[in-house]
Design brief:
Elements: E1 12-14, E2 20-22, E3 30-35, H1 42-53, H2 55-60, E4 63-69, H3 73-83, E5 89-92, H4 99-103, E6 107-108, E7 113-114, E8 117-121, E9 127-132, H5 141-160
Parallel strand pairs: 3-4, 4-5
Antiparallel strand pairs: 1-2, 3-8, 6-7, 8-9
C-alpha cells in the first residue's frame, strides 16, 4: 500500500458515464481516491453515499472525491442511478482489471477486487492520507475531512513563514 509522502501514480480510467478521468486532470485540487470492493453491496453503497453527502465539504476544502472499484462502466452507471449519486464520479477500474488499485497497493489478487481504503493526494501529486478499513465497515469521512483541514492549515503556515 502507498504511504504518506509517496508520489501518487497517475491513471486514466472511465467514470460511470464513460468519461475518461485522469488523476493529473485536477490541477490545484486535492483528490480523495475512495476504493471499495464491489458495487451493489450494502457497505460499498454506504461508502459511496458518504462521498456524495460530503461533496460540498470536500469542495470547500479544495478537494474532489472519486469512488473506485473493479466494476464495469455499465454496472457503475446503473448503481450510481440506483443510489441517487449525481455529482460524485464513480470510476470503473475494470480493465486492465484493478490496475489503479494495484498502483496504490490496495488490490486483493486472491479475491479479484480492491480492499476498502481512502487515499488523499495533494495538489502536487503527493499522498497525504492513507487509511484502510475492514470490509464490513463504512469508512468515516470525518477522518478524511480532518486530514484535509490539517493539510490546509499546514500549507497556510508554510505560506505565512
Amino acid at each position: 500500500m502507498v504511504e504518506v509522502g509517496d508520489q501518487a501514480g497517475d491513471f486514466s480510467i472511465p467514470d460511470h458515464n464513460g468519461n475518461t478521468v485522469r488523476l493529473s486532470a485536477f490541477p490545484g485540487k486535492r483528490v480523495l481516491l475512495s476504493f471499495h470492493p464491489l458495487a451493489w453491496t450494502r457497505i460499498c453503497a454506504g461508502q459511496m453515499k458518504a462521498l456524495e453527502a460530503n461533496r460540498e465539504a470536500f469542495e470547500a476544502l479544495g478537494a474532489v472525491a472519486l469512488g473506485i472499484s473493479v466494476d464495469s462502466v455499465p454496472c457503475k452507471h446503473a448503481w450510481a442511478e440506483n443510489l441517487g449519486i449525481h455529482k460524485t464520479r464513480l470510476l470503473a477500474d475494470f480493465w486492465p482489471h484493478g490496475a489503479v488499485a494495484q498502483i496504490y497497493g490496495v488490490f486483493d489478487s486472491q479475491r479479484g477486487y480492491s480492499r476498502r481504503a481512502n487515499i488523499v493526494v495533494d495538489e502536487v501529486g503527493r499522498v497525504i492520507f492513507v487509511a484502510e478499513y475492514p470490509a464490513t465497515t463504512v469508512p468515516d469521512m470525518q477522518d478524511v475531512l480532518d486530514a484535509l483541514r490539517a493539510q490546509e492549515r499546514h500549507t497556510e503556515e508554510v505560506l505565512e513563514a
